[in-house]
Fold this protein.
Amino acid sequence: MNIFVGVDLGSTTTKAVLLDERGTIAGRGITNSRSNYEVASRVAREEALVTARFNLVRNALVADSELAGIADGFVPLLERTFRREQYRDQLRRLRGELHRSGDRGRRSQSPTRLREVLDLIVDEMDERADRHFGALAVRKSDFFRDLAGGDYMALAERFAEPGGVEFETLSGLFDRAILPVENSVSETPMEELVGRALDAAVGASGPRGGAAAGLELAVARVRSTPLEELSSVGTGYGRQRLPFPKEQIRSEILCHGLGAHVMFPATKTVLDIGGQDTKAIQVDENGIVTSFQMNDRCAAGCGRYLGYIADEMNLGVHELGPLAQQATTCVKINSTCTVFAGAELRERLSLGQRREDILAGLHRAIVLRAMSLLARSGGVREEFTFTGGVARNPAAVAALEQLVAENYGERTINISPDSIYTGALGAALFALSASRKAA
Amino acid sequence: MNGDGQLFVVGVDVGSSAVKTAVVRMPAEGADEILALRTDRIRRRDLRKVIHEAYPLVLAEAGIEPGEVAYTASTGEGELVDFRRGHFYGMTTHARGAVFLEPQARSVLDVGALHARAMRIDARSKILGYRMTSQCASGSGQFLENVARYLGVSLDEVGPLSCGARSPEQVSSICAVLAETDVINMVSRGIATADILKGIHLSMAGRYVKLLRAIGAGEEHVLITGGLAADAGLANAMRECAEQGEMSMTIHTHPDSIYAGALGAALWGGFRHRVLARRAAQARREVS
Amino acid sequence: MNAELAQLLDRVRGLSEDVDFACVREWKGQGSGRKAVGYMPIYVPRELIHASGMLPVGVLGAGDRLEIIRGDAYFQSYICHIPRSTIEMALTGRLDVLDGMLFPSICDVIRNLSGMWRLLFPDRYVRYVDVPQNFSPDVGGAYWRRELEQLWSDFSGLAGRPRDARALARSLEIYNENRREIRRLYEARSLEPWLYPASELYLVTRAGSVLPPEEHTTLLRRYRELVAEESERREEDLSRIVLVGTFCEQPPLGLLLTLERAGCSIVDDDLLLGLRWLTEDVPEEGDPLDRLAAAYLECSCQTASVYQPEGRRGGWLVESVKRNQAEGVIFCAPSFCDPALLEQPMLVEALAAEGIPHTQFKYSENTGQFAVIREQAGTFSDSIRLWSEA
Amino acid sequence: MLLQKEMIGKHYRDLASAGDEGSKVVYTFVPGNLTELMGSFGVLPVLPEINALQSGMRKLSGDYISEAEKQGHSEDVCTYVKCDIGMLKKGNVGPTGLKLPEPDLLLLSYTGCFTFMKWFELLRQEYDCPVAMLHVPYQADGRIHDHHRDYIVEQLESEVIPKLEQVTGRRFDEERLRQRLALSAEAENDLVWVLESAKNVPSPIDAYFGGVYYIGPIFTAFRGTQAGVEYYQTLRAEIEERLAERRGPTTPEGELEEERYRLVMEGPPNWTSFREFWRMFSEEGAVVVASSYTKVGGLYDRGFRHDPERPLATLADYCMGCYTNLSLPARVDLIADYIREYRADGFMINSVKSCNSFSVGQLLMLRQLEERTGVPGGFIESDLVDPRYFSSANIKNRIESYLQMLEQKRGTAA
Ligand SMILES: Nc1ncnc2c1ncn2[C@@H]1O[C@H](COP(=O)(O)OP(=O)(O)O)[C@@H](O)[C@H]1O
Ligand SMILES: Nc1ncnc2c1ncn2[C@@H]1O[C@H](COP(=O)(O)OP(=O)(O)O)[C@@H](O)[C@H]1O
Ligand code: SF4
Ligand code: SF4
Ligand code: SF4
């Protein structure tokens, strides 16, 4: 199968979208951005290839009348199995790195004692893997850093004292070890992990007899289908650093505009709130950008603002929105600067204000800033599409809906669960159309 | 007050990252003496609780009873110190604390978690001029903390690492929050942690030297107070910047610099106590 | 506090917080065909509007009472705040109550704002009032008289009534009386600042930007009487301060309160100059338009927006410090305000020459956090009090 | 270009020796400058704005600005002023390395900017020399009123000329002024021809980055001089040749090969990274065919010429007609016309932090121009001479996105 790749190297996350020749989405992949851009874009791409394979499996099953019944259960099982394998593989590397940095440090603790504690923690993390990837598990994040980090810190707190090691030492070690883990690629090729997952899933899925044989056959066929990349286009904050030639790099503004247009063809106005910048884009009926505005390099008003606040509150970014939605009033936040807002938050908490209400204020603050940008780019026109990571945050969405209604009247607001992939989708479309043109 | 005219005074400096408390003995004559110092990081804890817990502990450390305290003064964000007798403003106390720690100090640079302030003072710690950084946390202590976290080094390591840097990386002023990506960028270009830290120190130092310049600090003894005084890398970078800017000031830190605010508050408290006592005595004399 | 005083203060606070100009709407509703003309702060001859039977309405920004959404879309981050909230009010229909809008020549921001108004509201009456920077009666004076004449004609057209010199003469008197009353209040405050907290004085004065002048004069008088009866207000140990730099964008009320809480007692200020830019009475004799034109040349207050033909800047400030026995000066200018901030070094020089302590900081009308300002003002007043006698 | 360097070099040498030669020196501003009048008195003009921009180009402005801020100037205000004050405090050494003479008179032609007034008041505190204030009314309703012209002429007669007479000890000679005005008009004709050559496709000039070199002499000391006339003759001949050979404009990288985008620019350029900024456009094949900045010292392409027949009135008209003295609606009209007349693909606004006179209202201009012309606009932010406000990556990103947008738009139109 021929595929076209779009990679969006964002400041916080790197996304890849694969299109087939007809322009349908074959796969999507995401990873957190990290210091090695090349690794980030490779991982995102491989992740997308993995989902592409899974999709192929699903299609093969659905196409087969005998197997169609199990497709709904099989693919998620496959995915979970794969993720667990992948997580374990990364844990192995984390263990290695933890040991290595533990040995290097000149600490008062005896290195063996430290190693023992570290092993205790990682062993336990390994056992907990199923909690993240069980059938009913609600996964807190897509990223190893977050999943492992959460477990590690909790366990470190538990084991530090009995193990005679300082918590600070342990947390420092994690911060150090996670970097090389993220910045290198596993020795186990992704294809092999996928293969293992497929085998395991076939084993665990339970069909017997003819169905089992059919399943095995279908899976084998998918495994041997080659996925060939015909062309690729890169975009996003880090696009200049991608190992792509210049003509394969597109401005993220254009990609977001086009991506939003393809997802919601009647889109006129696009708002993208990403990790480190916010863009307001107006597009015409062909998805072509007619004007745009973006903010300055200040975290106030971007996703990182919320990320920072989440850190301050010891929460995950995905927890912020739901909490803020429980607010009874909306506190007015006076600080513009993110760091000062963090301080204001602490101050207000200590004065006894409700966490939910303050959070509501913080969400409103960031959306207000986006509203100005929107106004500057030409206002909110019908239809309006909200993309970027912050579109995943229900409180931000609610605040936006309210402010748009107040200022522009009724507008259709499009939000897709896949909106974080908008830029990458646009890039993939550019890749596809470039290769069509060349042909 | 004891019969011998000595006072015990307490200063509580409520910052945005930590609460600093100091207990000082002020004899009727002779030098004032620090009895106890204490820092309590706030770190997502209830601020009121931190303050209230710290107080008895620091008194115990100083070996005095609550009833013996003549004056408790707050400074910084002192509203929550509801057991205080008076409040003094941050610059007033840092200036006083600085002169107490280093009597020759004529300029004070207070660098805390969110703000930096430069003050020029006289021998009595009177403030002759000052400048503060604006409402952007770029280049603040919190910023440095964030950077350290992204680099995976602890605050104590920051200074020594930076001092050992060979070819510091030029860093423009960057957002304290987005610094993460900038730092990641630098790491991705293979720049050593030490060089990144030194670069950041130099960029911060540049701003601070500018503040000092703006208040007209000349050939003087500059004392760094506040949390970042503990960071040898910053002081070092400041010296380099001052030299480059052909400024002949000398940059100093003091091991107790972080307590300058708390000490200053305590000492001003003692001063006020005596003024008030004198007034009361006078009033009594007038009555009788 | 006396109930009537409390009520009066409530009323003026309500007027200053009202971004919908309800009282102007009310005034217009009381007579058919009534019209109102808005103006940005300073150097606007309100007398001419009044003489044409219209209500002059000061547009002083929206302070912190409006979330700025569209306003920010028109102004880059490095521009002061008052034009943002003003545009926001206009775009949300709040200024529809105004039948015309005047933009005096204060600075490039207000000047360009007048052009923005023309582009955004092509059907409304807009005028840029280019105040002369030449003070010779035959040159700048003649020019100003022509401009005023033009304005007067415009107003009479807008109001639909002929120009009437007698009406103008009466308006001059009414405004003379109003300014006299404000001056009295300032003098009283300078003598006993603890009786007239700056935040109150500000609100009471500010009411004059939306009330008819006759009504405002009565209100001012009543305020002074009520305060005199107020027995709870006692002298406190505060530093006497002159506040400067706040002539256009209005400081949030919280700022004035903060200064006072930090130990500064304001004994003179340059707030609300739009209501008091003429520092003496306009003479009652002669052709009223001539007198009004001449008054600008002879007795208008000095601000950063007006050229000073001779000498060094800041004489008036030193004089105010001395007259009011102030112990220091606080420069408090809106962020990004070029006139005020460029003026400051010259004023500082004048103060330094006299050994008058001073400090400076910036605000914007919607600043909500005063911690830093409190800290600086507090330190300033600490330094005056703790060290001054020693 | 060489010729221009020589002219400027000589001017600064003359200035440096002004004290020895007994020449009188007048400081004044570019918009509304009375060069012909000053010339008729034989005084040498110093233009602090030009010094500031030169300091920016030579990367000295950062130091100067921080010197001024150290003296108590706010970081918020116009950096031209701070750059100038800083230069003064650091010895007043001009762009060619020669010391500048102190002013005998500050001629404050208060045209199109309030900051000018504060600037010269600040200089007056330093030099204690006389100031002649010329208040030029703003063209708020888009036209010149007779009584405004009269007001300016009266000020010239009662304020400016007497002060020039007093400083130089010479009497005002109207005939000499007329001669100079005639020379001005001649050079102005050629300048307009050069600027309008950009109507050709491809354009032989860049009317913004290249344009600043073209306007240099006529906006400064050389209007109304023979040298000025000759400069514009030479320039015109050069462009005629270029046009005949269908050659593109000069860029920092040599001649532009392919004109891919035609742009109109609003707002002054950034000086501290002038070449880098220029390169961001030229590398992508973007040529600026018309700009408003090249009109700050006179709007000649809309018909105004200095007129020797009405010497003082023509000066008044000149002052009132400078670009920044135009109302916002008039500015929008002008740029919209440029976009049409010069067949531009797009327009771009460089909004500089320093200059409220230029910048306030530009975001509204952007909207209005897009609506009126149907051509998309781009918006970038930088500063004149403050290196802290030139974020290269940011600006590049915006320019790149903008140009790609134009290209994409063209792709579908075709
Ligand atoms: N599940 C989620 N719930 C809420 N917010 C999220 C979620 N995922 C991402 N975000 C927000 O989105 C931001 C990242 O957005 P993204 O569009 O990926 O940015 P970029 O393209 O700059 O990397 C994060 O800073 C975070 O605030
Ligand atoms: N040991 C240390 N080494 C380096 N920096 C330190 C150290 N301890 C504290 N800091 C810095 O000092 C800052 C806190 O300073 P402090 O003066 O206490 O601020 P505040 O009064 O605002 O709480 C922290 O943000 C941190 O960056
Ligand atoms: S104001 Fe705060 S969020 Fe914005 S750039 Fe500065 S540090 Fe970053
Ligand atoms: S605050 Fe200053 S800059 Fe802003 S409009 Fe008023 S005078 Fe102009
Ligand atoms: S504000 Fe603009 S026109 Fe005025 S001096 Fe500064 S740069 Fe020049």
User: Anything to note?
Assistant: The beta strands of chain D are 25-28, 44-46, 105-110, 131-135, 250-251, 254-255, 261-266, 286-291, 346-352, 377-382. Chain D has a mean pLDDT of 93. The interface with chain B takes residues 66, 69-70, 72, 388 of chain D (CB under 8 Å).
